[in-house]
Design a protein that fits this description.
Blueprint (H helix, E strand, L loop, with lengths): L1 E6 L2 E6 L2 H5 L4 E6 L2 E3 L7 H11 L3 E3 L5 H4 L2 H6 L4 E2 L2 H7 L7 H7 L18 E4 L8 E5 L4 E3 L20 H13 L4 E4 L3 E2 L3 H24 L4 H8 L5 H5 L6 H10 L5
Parallel strand pairs: 4-5, 5-6, 9-10
Antiparallel strand pairs: 1-2, 2-3, 3-4, 7-8, 8-9, 10-11
Helix pairs in contact: 7-8, 9-11
The protein binds zinc ion.
C-alpha cells in the first residue's frame, strides 16, 4: 500500500503491506528535486516502480543497505533507473546477508544486486556519512532548504535495543547525530516517523540519552560486570519483540555494542 503525503517541495511516499502493518512496520521514501530517497522494501516494488515511471523521477539515492531502504535496488538497476549509493552499501547489496525470519515476514525477499548500476549524482543534495545505525549509513542534506532526510539516524529518542546487522555501533551514533544537528536543519524527515516536530531537538535528546546510557554501561563494564547482569540492571527484561526477532533486536545487542567499543576512543 502506498500513501502519498505532501510537504511543499517534499513528497513522502509511505509504504506498507498487511504483513508489515501486522507487526507495526512501514517505511517512507522521500521525493525532492526530482529525486527519490531510498527504494523501500521488496514487497512494494511494483508500486514503487509505477510511481517512478509516472513521476519521471531522475534517479534514486540509497542511504544504506538495509532491506527496507535498499530492498528494490536490484529491480531499479535492472530497469535502468539511475542509482546513487556509496561503495560500502553497494558491496553489502552484492553479498548474501544473514536474514532472520522476521525480516522475510516484514519486508519480503532481498534479491542480490547483480545488474549493473547506472550511476547518478543528485544536484543540490549531499550524502552525509552518519555511521552507527549501520557502518554504511548516510543522511541526505538539502542545504538550500536546510532539510535533513535522516534515514534511520533517529527512529526514536530512547531506542533501548540494537541489532548486529551491519555492525550497529551505538557510540558512533552519538557522533553522527551531533554532526547532523551541527548542519542546522529546520526540517528533519525520518524514514519511519515522517516529518519530525522539532527534529533537531529530538536528535539532541536522543544523543544525550545514548550518552547517559552508554556511561552507565561503561561504569559496569569497568567494574567487571558480565553482559547479562548489565542488561538486567540498566534495561530490565528483554521486550517481547526481542524473542520474536530471535534476539536480532535486543537490549543484549545494545550492551554488546558498547562493550565492543570499550574503552571509549
Ligand atoms: Zn536501517
Amino acid at each position: 500500500m502506498l500513501r502519498v503525503e505532501s510537504h511543499g517541495d517534499v513528497q513522502r511516499l509511505h509504504f506498507s503491506t498487511w504483513r508489515s502493518r501486522l507487526v507495526g512496520y512501514s517505511v517512507s521514501c522521500y521525493a525532492v528535486r526530482g529525486v527519490l530517497i531510498d527504494s523501500a522494501f521488496h514487497d512494494v516494488g511494483d508500486e514503487l516502480l509505477a510511481w517512478i515511471r509516472e513521476s519521471q523521477c531522475r534517479g534514486v539515492i540509497i542511504t544504506h543497505a538495509h532491506d527496507d531502504h535498499a530492498g528494490n535496488a536490484e529491480r531499479l538497476a535492472r530497469a535502468g533507473v539511475p542509482i546513487q549509493l556509496q561503495p560500502d552499501s553497494e558491496a553489502l547489496l552484492k553479498t548474501p546477508q544473514r536474514r532472520g525470519p522476521h525480516r522475510w515476514w516484514s519486508w519480503g525477499a532481498m534479491p542480490l544486486l547483480r545488474s549493473p548500476v547506472t550511476p547518478f549524482v543528485a544536484q543540490g543534495l549531499e550524502m552525509v556519512f552518519t555511521p552507527g545505525h549501520s557502518y554504511d549509513h548516510y543522511c541526505v542534506w538539502d542545504a538550500d532548504t536546510r532539510t535533513l532526510f535522516a534515514a534511520d539516524l533517529f527512529l526514536g529518542v530512547k531506542v533501548r535495543v540494537a541489532h548486529p546487522v551491519h555492525r550497529e555501533d551505538v557510540r558512533a551514533q552519538v557522533a553522527s547525530i551531533r554532526k547532523a544537528v551541527a548542519l542546522g536543519p529546520t526540517r528533519v524527515f525520518d524514514a519511519h516517523r515522517g516529518l519530525l516536530k522539532d527534529g533537531a531537538g529530538l536528535l539532541n535528546a536522543k544523543a544525550d540519552w545514548i550518552e547517559q546510557t552508554v556511561a552507565q554501561i561503561d561504569r559496569r563494564i569497568g567494574d567487571g560486570w558480565p553482559d547479562p547482569a548489565i542488561v538486567r540492571d540498566v534495561f530490565g527484561r528483554e521486550p517481547l519483540f526481542a524473542y520474536v526477532t530471535l534476539f536480532d533486536w535486543s537490549h543484549a545487542n545494545f550492551v554488546a555494542s558498547v562493550r565492543r567499543t570499550y574503552p571509549a576512543r
